[in-house]
């Protein structure tokens, strides 16, 4: 599903983002990527999303070798990915419904499919009564639920969440993680980069720990407690 083989990233200033990283993520897995600031989490996530290219190594996403992918094919790769960010990135002048529907219009989905899928994901994330609200009328948790609904409305096989609970209070953060777990149970492969120690310890998923750009730990049913 996601194959990262001996990947390194050296930035133009000479700093190393990640060094000789190899990670294999199977279909249907739920994986936390953890590590302190500067450990390489953001570099790794951006390379999976094809926002950055590796200096060395190979990345294959759902059977697509993205390492030297032509620019005009990147949008089609990203249709394999649902992406959730810490800062939500909602369109402020569109309603909740319109924000989610926008993701379907980008891929030229038929209006019939939009009318069917958007209410379904609104119900899944518990926002069926907020369809007509604008982002500035929502709480932080509701905004993140909207972003999550937008990320999954096209049924991508992979969901990438980059610090999805970073701006949320603990109770709301836990609600979001429970939603991610439910999405995973429905078959979506989920990769979460996070600093949320308590959540990682409670959920006991696969945990990949980065330190100074290297994978130093990769365990099933892991916690955050013994990060180096």
Please give a structural write-up.
The chain has 228 residues and is α/β, with parallel strands linked by helices. It is 32% helix and 26% strand. It folds into two domains: 1-80 and 156-228, Rossmann fold, CATH 3.40.50.300; 90-155, no CATH class. The protein has helices spanning 41-48, 74-78, 96-106, 111-124, 140-152, 170-185, 197-203, and strands at 2-10, 16-25, 30-34, 56-61, 64-65, 81-85, 158-162, 189-193, 206-211, 214-219. Helix 6 links the parallel strand 7 and strand 8. Helix 4 packs across helix 5.
Q: Quick summary of this structure?
A:
With 228 residues, the protein is of the alpha/beta class.
Write the SSE topology.
Elements lengths: L1 E9 L5 E10 L4 E5 L6 H8 L7 E6 L2 E2 L8 H5 L2 E5 L10 H11 L4 H14 L15 H13 L5 E5 L7 H16 L3 E5 L3 H7 L2 E6 L2 E6 L9
Helix pairs in contact: 3-4, 3-5, 4-5, 5-6
Give the number of helices: 7
Number of domain units: 2
The overall pLDDT average reads 93
Summarize the helix and strand pattern as letters: EEEHEEHEHHHEHEHEE
CATH topology of the largest domain: Rossmann fold
Q: Can you tell me the overall shape?
A: globular
Computed structural class: alpha/beta
Number of strands: 10
Radius of gyration, in angstroms, nearest whole number: 17 Å
Share in β-strands: 25-35%
Residue windows where pLDDT falls under 50 for at least 5 positions:
none
Measured as a percent range, the helix fraction is 25-40%
Q: In this structure, how is the largest beta sheet organized?
A: 6 strands, mixed
CATH architecture of the largest domain: 3-Layer(aba) Sandwich
Q: In what order do the strands lie side by side in the largest sheet?
A: 6-7-8-3-9-10
CATH homology superfamily name of the largest domain:
P-loop containing nucleotide triphosphate hydrolases
Name of the CATH first level of the largest domain: Alpha Beta
């Amino acid at each position: 599903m996601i194959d990262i083989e001996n990947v390194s990233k050296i930035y133009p200033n000479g700093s190393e983002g990640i060094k000789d990283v190899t990670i294999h993520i199977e279909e249907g897995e739920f994986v936390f990527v953890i590590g302190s600031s500067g450990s390489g989490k953001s570099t790794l996530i951006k390379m999976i999303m094809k926002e950055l290219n590796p200096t060395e190594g190979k990345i294959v996403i759902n059977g697509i070798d993205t390492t030297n992918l032509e620019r005009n094919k990147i949008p089609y790769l990203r249709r394999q990915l649902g992406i959730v960010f810490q800062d939500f990135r909602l369109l402020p002048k569109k309603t909740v419904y319109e924000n989610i529907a926008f993701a379907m219009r980008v891929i030229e989905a038929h209006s019939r499919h939009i009318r069917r899928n958007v209410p379904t994901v609104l119900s899944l994330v518990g926002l069926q009564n907020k369809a007509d609200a604008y982002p500035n009328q929502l709480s932080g948790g509701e905004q993140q639920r909207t972003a999550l609904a937008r990320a999954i409305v096209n049924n991508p096989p992979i969901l990438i969440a980059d610090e999805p609970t970073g701006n949320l209070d603990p109770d709301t953060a836990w609600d979001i993680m429970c939603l991610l777990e439910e999405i995973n149970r429905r078959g979506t492969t989920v990769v979460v980069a996070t600093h949320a120690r308590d959540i990682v310890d409670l959920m006991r998923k696969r945990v990949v720990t980065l330190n100074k750009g290297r994978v130093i730990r990769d365990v099933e049913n892991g916690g955050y407690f013994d990060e180096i």
